[in-house]
Design a protein that fits this description.
alpha/beta, Rossmann fold, 2 domains, four-stranded parallel beta sheet, three-stranded mixed beta sheet, 45% helix
Length: 351
């Protein structure tokens, strides 16, 4: 078992990575929770594969456990779904001393975490990510959220889990597109923090468990320094300003998150190269890695005003300034206040 700790004082927790953990869920939950009742939230895709073994393990360990299933996909990450989850919890008789488990990808983790943070003013929860995107990114760091019609993750909170239980074997049941989706965030971590990871991804000289551990180590290190996303943690948003605009423009249906971020990383880097802010040739390096893993890199055609509106609602706007994450070169990133370059960025991505 690979283990690392997200160091946040009283809110610290472990990330555990081991094959077969879905069949040992009860044992892992018992290490951090001594109560009686556990409610598992999952989605319609994940439930087919993992709801039964997780519930069986919880029951075998002595927990009273039940589960609720939400439709798979980003469309479930909304305020209406929160009401459904609250109803599940109430019907199960869930109290503040009980536990919630988020079993699934990023959508399940985000909406379940937000429900846990707000139901009865906060119920403990555990993340059990089953997608690559969730394992390398969204399950770690305590960002929980719902989407609003105006944009992605606009309602949310910082609410840390008790534990992150990660079974690499769950990736075997992912559709190829959703594995590629997660690779968008893996590549992002290499771009902003680790040329070594970037180079290993390009050469293919890294196994699955080591890749998961390397990404979680990067994410946990950043969260430790900036839990509330006011400083260094903003670097994790590389590619996201444009990526979220693409997702919002297409109503979260045409492109996955990782695909949108992939296009965002390439577009923002060609923009910053033209302004002399990024080492020449960096965008081509990113493009080569995106192509290796089957990810798109060219932004789709979009209407200017809709892009303006989407970026205007972006939560990375602080003090009315658009804060972009750029690269000096692969493995070295920094934040850049785009004003008065914001309009130039928009013109660049819709050109």
């Amino acid at each position: 078992m690979k283990t690392l700790t997200v160091e946040l004082g009283k809110r610290s927790y472990d990330i555990v990575i081991e094959k077969g953990l879905v069949h040992k869920a009860g044992e892992e939950v018992r290490k951090v929770y001594n109560g009686a009742k556990v409610f598992v939230v999952t989605d319609s895709n994940v439930a087919r594969h993992y709801a039964e073994p997780v519930l069986a393990s919880l029951h075998d360990t002595g927990f009273e456990a039940a589960h609720g299933v939400i439709p798979a996909g980003e469309a479930s990450k909304n305020i209406d779904m929160l009401k459904i989850l609250y109803t599940y919890f109430l019907d199960f008789g869930l109290s503040r001393s009980d536990l919630i488990v988020a079993l699934g990808g990023g959508v399940v983790g985000d909406i379940t975490g937000f429900a846990a943070a707000t139901y009865l003013r906060g119920v403990p929860y555990i993340q059990m990510p089953t997608s690559l995107l969730a394992q390398v990114d969204s399950s770690v760091g305590g960002k929980v959220a719902a989407d609003l019609p105006q944009g992605k993750n606009l309602a949310g909170a910082f609410y840390q889990p008790l534990r992150v239980i990660m079974d690499p074997d769950t990736l075997d049941t992912l559709e190829p597109r959703y594995y590629r989706d997660g690779m968008g965030e893996v590549i992002k971590h290499g771009c902003i923090y680790s040329k070594d990871l970037f180079d290993k991804l390009l050469s293919g000289e890294i196994n699955r468990e080591d890749m998961l551990y390397a990404n979680c180590a990067i994410k946990s290190s950043v969260v430790k320094k900036d839990e509330l996303d006011r400083g260094e943690r903003m670097l994790l948003n590389f590619g996201h300003t444009i990526g979220h605009a693409i997702e919002c423009y297409h109503q979260f249906s045409l492109y996955s998150h990782g695909e949108a971020v992939a296009m965002g990383m390439y577009a923002i880097t060609t923009f910053s190269e033209k302004r002399g802010l990024t080492k020449a040739g960096t965008a081509d390096q990113i493009k080569a890695l995106l192509r290796k893993y089957g990810l798109p890199y060219e932004c789709p055609a979009m209407e200017r005003q809709k892009v303006v509106d989407a970026i205007a609602h972006d939560k990375k706007n602080l003090n009315q300034q658009l804060n972009l994450v750029l690269l000096k070169e692969i493995g070295r990133s920094f934040t850049y206040k785009a004003d008065p370059d914001a309009w130039g960025l928009i013109d660049h991505i819709i050109a």
